[in-house]
Amino acid sequence: MTQTTPPPDIRLRLAFAGGLAFGPGKAELLRQIARTGSISAAGRAMGMSYKRAWSLVEEMNTGFAAPLVASARGGAGGGGASLTETGAAVLRHYEACVDHLRTDGADALAALAGLVATDMSGGR
Amino acid sequence: MTQTTPPPDIRLRLAFAGGLAFGPGKAELLRQIARTGSISAAGRAMGMSYKRAWSLVEEMNTGFAAPLVASARGGAGGGGASLTETGAAVLRHYEACVDHLRTDGADALAALAGLVATDMSGGR
Question: I need a labelling partner for B52 at 20 to 30 A (CA). Which of B10, B28, B60, B113 fits?
Fold first, then answer.
């Protein structure tokens, strides 16, 4: 009886000169900001505190050459937030990297998945 | 004055169905075991406790369909360790994934690097 293990989830973290890192968490935060139009709603959707979401946005906004997220501080109900052109570009290029790996690396990923134990009852 | 940011370091973590994960740390441990012929020496080279190195090896040996590392318990000076055929294959396929990303994703990686702030004095 042969079971096939599906291809693995890809978690790609890029570490840039100067210390800036960009990975799955920040990418998802950008996606959720684009979807919800709000930094706090994006954080909530990820089970992340408001403070943590803001701190990640600030890190991205200062670490890249231009801000990735534009936000209005404003009023009751909080200001809105959206991705800037740079923010959309960063997310798009990051997703292109993951897609390259998924398509061009499909054979290697399948080979790895084929080497994983199908009975994981003893493993973690 | 235009500065170019070098391409980022790629840290790829693969999460398989069943909970097994394989990423840069385990890959480096396998490389060091192949190089040093010893689990404890491999751990030392990575600033990792003996216990931690053994626990990672055990996790890999049970999580994959066959052990990745063969070790002799033996005697004074400790037994030797080496990669099995499966261990060498896992490392090779993992490195192929990273290479695919580096070559096929070169444009996307360069585009990302080009968007990073060159003056990081204010960032992290």
Answer: B10
